[in-house]
Amino acid sequence: MEPTIQRIVSANDIPSLHQILIACGLDLKERFDLSHWMPGVYSLESMLKDAMSLEVYALTIGEAQVGTFMLETTSSVPLSYIKYGSIRWQVKDASAVYVHKLAVLPAWQGQGLGTWCLRTIERLAGQRDCNTVRLDAVKTHPRLLSFYASQGYQQVGELIYNSDLWVDAFVFEKVLMPDGFEILV
After folding, report:
1. Which one, of 82, 80, 25, 86, lies nearest residue 54 by Cα?
2. Is 183's pLDDT higher than 60?
3. Residues contacting residue 163 through CB under 8 Å, at least 6 positions apart
4. 69 pLDDT exceeds 50?
């Protein structure tokens, strides 16, 4: 079956997506000793609050919800990037799509769904006349950092939180080319 995404507009649908993040958080804790999506760190209440200002999507295969992500489309840089970041954007003052909380259930990882999500997000960005897709990834997760680099995302900075609650991260950006253009090397 082909993957699909659905934008979630009802708060009633958020708890099942929060459970996907919790399952991924428990897996990240076990495999990489990361705790940023553990119960109590990113609560259901926090996700419900985020859903009021961000677009929340469910990734499904058939009837099964197997992943989630959130998008923020804006021409201004999110406050957390300004407050905690040291970033050198490739394209300044660009309309951008910011990706938050991209997660695929551990049992479904390694099947190309993360790549599929990124391509879908890039298409959504293009439909919104956004020139870039931006995201951050935990600094201590080398497989994830390598994955984003392999998908054409350039590391452009980092977020330093100086906190026990939040994990420092690298910031990535991919500049999207309009149809019909190509980059000459």
Report:
1. 80
2. no
3. none
4. yes
**In order of start, what are the domains of the chain with their CATH numbers?**
3-175 (3.40.630.30)
- The stretch 96-113 carries a mean pLDDT of 96
What is the SS3 assignment for 19? helix
As a whole number of angstroms, the distance between CA 94 and CA 39 comes to 35
Q: pTM for this structure?
A: 0.90
Residue type, 22: I
Alpha carbon separation from 112 to 3, 86, 88, 139 (Å, rounded): 10, 31, 29, 22
Residue type, 54: L
The 3-class SS string of 129-150 reads CCCEEEEEEECCCHHHHHHHHH
Q: Which two tokens stand for residue 156?
A: 């452009």
Q: What percent of the chain has pLDDT over 70?
A: 94
Q: What is the CA radius of gyration of the chain?
A: 16
